[in-house]
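JOB MANIFEST
job_type = single_chain_structure
chain_count = 1
residues = 360
[input]
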Amino acid sequence: MACKAYYLSPDGQLHQDLSREDIKSAHESKEGLLWIDISETTQEDGEFLEQELGLHHLAVEDCVSPNIHPPKVDDFGEYLFIVVHGINHAVETEIVETAELAVFLGPHFVVSNHNYPLYSVESIRQLVIADGRPMRRGADFFAYTMIDALIDNVMPTIDKMSDVAEEIEEETIRYPQQTTLEAILKLKRSTLRVHRVMVPQRDVLNRISRGGFPQIKAEALMYYRDIYDHMVRIEDLNQTIRDRADNALNTYLSSVANRQNEVMKTLAMVATIFMPLTLLAGIYGMNFENMPELKWSWGYFAVLGIMGVVIIVALWRFWVGNWFSWGRRRISRARLFTIEPEKLLGNAGRLAGRPRRRTQ
């Protein structure tokens, strides 16, 4: 059993590396605070939770099952079963992966279960080993500490996704290519995965923060409301990134369409220029004997001159029609949107130049 247990006795002593008998004894004492953390839960772990700790079979089955379960909170009377999701930082992938954390919250015990290593749980473990401080305020505060650390670890992923969105926007404008489209689609899938778990999780935390569960004391509710506020901010930021990905996709499609239009315009220009030249070459390439220009000494140069005039006239017509921008004035590089201070109300220079109102 990949299990680590810690027991904070009523006298404030922290006991580590508990055996099964110690865990059972601490649980039956109904005193202090017992924390059991299980990773990569097996069927044997489920039997221990169900038989030795008396946890409900349905909740234990969710812990043992490798399937992804939606965020929820179930009230089993003496304890709560809470399922929340964070980011799986243990895997390296181009698409964000989520990780599930299940928490049994009782009056004198907390059981945490996860199938992937979680940095948030490890950070809480280090604090517990150092001085046991997270466990000293009770089970409800300790569960809050674990959930809050899990949610806080979502923000670095959101910031990274925002940086990726900015890079994609710049590349889409400068030089859109196939890899740009792939990056946009991966970003959209990442935002969708975050959205799929954060929206129901926000409702779960909102339900917990409103009270109604005797396992959570009134003084701890404001801390759970703080987690709920973080969830709202994360969801807003994720939705913003999702909108930026949609805009980048539209920009990419527009840029590709514009590039295709430019190619078609170039081909049309080349075809338009060479069509009359081909006509002249075809006429004077015929093998008739009675063609008056064939014996004219300046005929060859006259035909070349006519071809040159045709090319110049065609290019001039394209330039007038704005088919290309050679020799035209370009728009200068965009600058920051600034206003002259003299035009602003309350500016010292403007007030100094204004005549003073006479008072009587």
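[summary]
Residues 3-253 form a domain with the Beta Polymerase; domain 2 fold (CATH 3.30.460.20).
The chain has two domains: 3-253, 284-320.
exit_status = 0
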